[in-house]
Amino acid sequence: MKNTQTYIQENKDKFLNELVDLLKIPSVSADLAFKNDVRKTAEEIAKFMKEAGADKIEICETAGHPIVYSEKMIDPSLPTILVYGHYDVQPADPIELWTSPAFEPVIKKTEIHPEGAIFARGACDDKGQMFMHLKAFEAMMKADELPCNVKFMIEGEEEIGSENLGTFCKANHERLAADIILVSDTGMINNETPSITTGLRGLSYLEVEVTGPNRDLHSGLYGGCVANPINVLAKMIGSMHDENNHITIPGFYDKVQELTDAERAEMAKAPFSLDAYKKALDLTDIHGETGYSTIERGSIRPTLDVNGIWGGYIGEGAKTVIPSKAYAKISMRLVPNQVPNEITELFTNYFNSIAPEGVKVKVTPHHGGDAAVTPIDSIGYAAASKACETTFGKKAIPVRSGGSIPIVSMFEKELGLKTVLLGFGLDSDAIHSPNEHFGLFNYYKGIETIPYFYKYFTEMSQN
Ligand code: BES
Ligand code: MN
Ligand code: MN
Q1: Which of 4, 169, 356, 358 is 20 to 30 A removed from 451 (C-alpha atoms)?
Q2: CA of 404 to the centre of ligand 1 (A)
């Protein structure tokens, strides 16, 4: 792939400038105020596909934001790689915590990224990582070294639960026929340690509402006499973990797949420094389920976390009030075998059962998704591993991630395809947070590595 790699080296500035332009469009899928920007991003991606030499480019309408599809079929006897990515991004809030505006990308040097990182919402998740695939494809096309067929399916609703992607896959079985799905929407351990993600957690996300009196009350006149929904909610949430930080919902762990001691020992080999971990987060100590390491707590164990909680008076100064209502958004990260709908039901039953007299509670489910594990004894994994070895000069380590990409299990069910998760982001890249960034090293390394995946996957498929 000599010419491909030369093309990449000669076009680094172009690749960066193009990504900067793409990051300027605020493709926030959650907020319909950005609907036109989401579409504009889809159109830009279609343009880039065209310039790179893809065929059958189509902006596919859905009930929500569009999916951008294209392909390059060079020979039906060769394998086909289906690349999935997402061009939508999380909201930029809280915007006041950004050191430069979220949609005005700038390159800044950091301790972890001494060669510079691009700061913008979506830089890493997932515009930057998705764009690596378009640029790698462009390089292979321009160098006339594309070794197999490729299809691109780039969606605009991943951050809101990929609600319409399932329908699209169902309706397009033939068009999406492939041998493997390749996704860069995950991370790696650090810039010296290439890694391939072999597992993702599932998710059950819901919202709860606790209602006390029919109106906000004077906290002097009524304080002590009626249930305060915020006090009640805090206590209910507090009771959902025991002293060992186990989740107390009956049945919650029933289907959890326990790892063998050998598998846990293998996991413990991944480089990890607790001191560096604490330092990076300004923490004096870590916290979690008794009996499990931090790596395990963040990947193979299920969780329950409040993502937001509100109610009452939160404006300036003090207002003496007992609120009528309290709310919280709660996520439960799930592991293989746990069924999101079942967990949502267990939560709902339990939440109702622990509500004290004097309040009403309501649980509203949001999106969810299955956990996924991807095989390491597969051609896909072997090709990704060899590709990393080629560009990093080091063997890749398999890693189970704590994040969720619910469509990975959907792809397997709907299309019968396995996914390779070849991500280049770092946990410290602040995805979903203020000051999200993506290292230039990581961006270019991704573009350089992807063509080798194509090459090795093609070679290995033919043996
Ligand atoms: N790319 C992330 C998931 C991710 C990040 C997996 C890093 C592994 C490592 C994805 O865009 C995401 O944020 N997923 C959501 C779930 C989705 C249903 C909104 C998540 O994990 O919270
Ligand atoms: Mn993502
Ligand atoms: Mn995300």
Answers
A1: 169
A2: 5
